[in-house]
# Entry
Amino acid sequence: MGKLALAAKITHVPSMYLSELDGPNKGCRQAAIDGHHEIGRRCRELGVDTIVVFDVHWLVNSEYHINCAPHFKGLYTSNELPHFIKNLAYEYPGNPQLGHLIADVANEMGVKTRAHSDTTLELEYGTLVPMRYMNADQHFKVVGVSGWCMWHKLEESARFGLAVRKAIEERYDGTVAVFASGSLSHHFAENGTAPDYMNKVFDPFLEQMDRRVVEMWQQGDWKTFLEMLPMYNEKCWGEGGMHDTAMLLGMLGGANYDQGVEVVTPYFGSSGTGQINAIFPVTPLRNTTTA
# Structure
């Protein structure tokens, strides 16, 4: 029925918003912004009607959750970095139908999930930042998924990702893009040192690990990457436990996925963290193995 047209791992660094403003950091994230514009352009070319975001800034302690309100509108200031993102206006249409279909399939697969359409839940900045550059004209409907899963297993998140794929292809009448919105390594600069790390990764070990991971992604070596993902997450302070990445790969076929990514925005450091925009080619599922 439906189609998964595009999948990507994307950055949402708040310095992208700061990059727009007059001051010493103006233009510092233009490459990341350009990458989001390009991904948005491709979504339009592919006829995408809805973007689903696995957002590592939405923390949950139990179950998987989907924010599929019919409409989103607000004025957002980050409680984490209020000096980076403040008074950011946003408005996007939602997609309750798709959100509930995903929850239905996930629950049938034994992954406890709740879809929230009658809700005052707001979008988090892991969604708001990329939508600012990809969806300023409200062309796409938006569905948010909790990606900071505190007490969940990466294998279960991979199964949730597979449920997203099945819901789209087997029950939804439309075309969807799905983004894992989160970093690679995620150790912030220590307090008081942030300006020194504005465009750097916190430690050479973290940067070298990230760069090797990107090489594996480009080579399509997902078997090796999935085997090392739990340790990579632990040793490199994965953002949100890297559940967004597990969901993305589960959606694409897990260890059976064999495609190399297309890097749209090359790897870069931001406030100590490692970042990238990369498109993951979508291919037919060979079977339902996720990890």
Summary: The CA atoms of residues 141 and 179 lie 13 Å apart. The first strand starts at residue 3 and ends at 10.
